[in-house]
Amino acid sequence: MVPPSFLFQYALPMVRADQLPGSKDSALRLPAAATVFLPAQLNTTDIPWTLKAAWNTDGLGFEIRLRKKSFPPAGRWSAVQSSDRVMILLDTRPAVGLQRATEFCSLLTVLPLDDDADDQPSARFIEIAQQRTTRVAQDARRSRLDTVQARDGYTLSVWIPGSQLPGFAELAETRALGLYVIIEDSELGQLPMSVGGDFPIAWNPSLWTRMELA
């Protein structure tokens, strides 16, 4: 059965927030206007997470808030497939019908808490399956990560400098970005932005959501 969220093509607004990323000792503090509609809400009303996204000429900021957990997130890169993690897929040159990742696509995988990093968040840029080529050497250590734990989950903030994203310099002109966020949780399972693992979301950018940069 085709999920309702797959029946539409989306163009969602992504606000500009020039105050990002702010000081290194504070969270990103994305505004309420940065809240992104999750098409997965068309499939079920029980969505345990929210997403905020914003941009400026220096980079991209994200805030993922997950609730309804009973245990803190845990994971390590040596067992990443069984770890709690958040995957952020980006395409700085979104094109209709493009079904294979280009040199403008990136995948940043984030562990909200890394057991091998003193329970601090950590991230890596991961090669996308069937990607044609890459344009820049990406260093996830230049990203800024912050995880705040709550009784029933966590809030993860991610800042990705534009220097780590191919084609980012032209975003102010093209005003469009392909975005897809997937949470893999050991308790709650896979929580996609729209459709899930039954579709080739990990490498097919035509399934990602088009964001119109405000």
* Amino-to-carboxy terminus distance: 35 Å
- Mean pLDDT across the residues is 92
Structural classification: mainly beta
Number of strands: 11
Helix content: under 10%
Question: Helical stretch count?
Answer: 1
Which band does the percent of strand residues land in?
35-45%
Report the principal-axis shape: globular
Rounded to an integer in angstroms, the radius of gyration calculated over CA atoms is 16 Å
List SSEs in N-to-C order: EEEEEEEEHEEE
Describe this structure in words.
The protein is an all-beta fold and 214 residues long. The chain is 2% helix and 37% strand. It has one helix and eleven strands. It has one helix spanning 171-174; strands spanning 11-16, 49-56, 59-66, 85-91, 105-114, 120-125, 144-150, 153-161, 176-185, 189-192, 209-213. Strands 1, 2, 3, 4, 5, 6, 7, 8, 9, 10 and 11 form an eleven-stranded mixed sheet that branches. A hairpin with a 2-residue loop joins strand 2 (49-56) and strand 3. It starts with 10 loop residues before the first strand and ends with a strand. 41% of the residues are buried. The mean pLDDT is 92.
